Amino acid sequence: MVETTARAESRPRLLTGDRPTGPLHLGHLVGSLETRVALQHDHECFIIVADLHTLTTRPRAEEVAELPGYVRDIVLDQLAVGIDPERATFYLQSAVPAVYDLAILLQMLVPKLRLEQIGSLRSMARAAALPDDAMTMGLLAYPVLQAADILMARASVVPVGLDNEEHIAIARECASVFNELYGDLFPLPQARISRWSSLPGIERGIAGSGAKMSKSLGNAVFLGDSAEVVAAKLRTLEFGDAERASPHEPALLVFARVFMGEDEARELGAGLRAGTLSLAAAHDALIAAIEQRLQPIRERRSALAGEIGLVEEIIVDGTIRAREVANVTLARAREAIGLEPLWSGLVTATQARAKARKRPY
Ligand code: TRP
Hints:
With about 350 residues, the chain is mostly helical. It has helices spanning about 1-10, 25-40, 50-55, 60-65, 65-80, 95-105, 110-115, 120-125, 135-140, 140-150, 165-180, 225-235, 240-245, 250-260, 260-275, 280-305, 310-335, 340-355, and strands at about 15-20, 45-50, 90, 155-160, 190-195. Strands 1-2-3 form a three-stranded parallel beta sheet. A two-stranded parallel sheet has the order 4-5. Helix 14 runs antiparallel to helix 15. Bound molecules: tryptophan. Tryptophan binds near residues 50, 53, 146 and 164.
């Protein structure tokens, strides 16, 4: 036990994760999951399941009722990809109360105007069909809650997509203002932006418009999809017209670059343009390359899913550990600000009075 702690503390802390809004897809695989798998060896990893963040745009009872399935799905997906629960701490955000407390304390440090200028929040509001005048405090403070996630673990490395870059800047600002006001407590977290932070979706038409792969657009290839479903989805990718009609690189070529390699993708594009390669043959090559990646993931996924209660136990274990870490950080933050001394001053005076009157409080 002692040995594990000593080893863990010598590695930089990393925190990342997702909102449980559906199972993970190929965009997540190349955009973030593979980075997580690689970084787990020399980082102490915390993987958040950010269900409180989901409430910012999906607060309704029927949406909350979907959380248990989605929470299980995204942890299952990450285990299947190869994140080792012995190395990484998976935890459920809403079950770590210290995070709510820390978020309130950090809110004092962020100008409202700063949050109003963040484009990603407006996009999220738009995606959730929320008009400007219906923007909630919760959504506006989304990045502050995210800062609390990161700072509660005192993490220094935060792998995210480009859409989260500004949120990590907010976390850094929170850390630096806090340290300035109350003394050094938080390392300044750095975003690590993934190389493929937006894989396009597979749907015809939409793919040509360069839309990002996303569950809500219905253009995703899920890690849990069967081989047949994956193939059928990939066969909808077009080439000629898509290339002429859109300023964006056709999704077929982006997929080829990501899953087959730059040279192979160039050859495939040249063959299609010259007519020496049929679209069906290009699909076959791409499907084979993607299947090579997906097949072992799918097998592990179904084996893990068959072990009743395993995923749940991994989340419970991790959440208990995350609570311990968060409680320590919150106590230190309260001490630094002077809130803990404020309370303990009251308690001490109360105890002194009880002693003087020779009757316990
Ligand atoms: N905002 C992330 C998303 O887009 C989820 C998230 C919440 C997160 N807290 C985090 C990511 C802390 C990295 C670090 O889904």
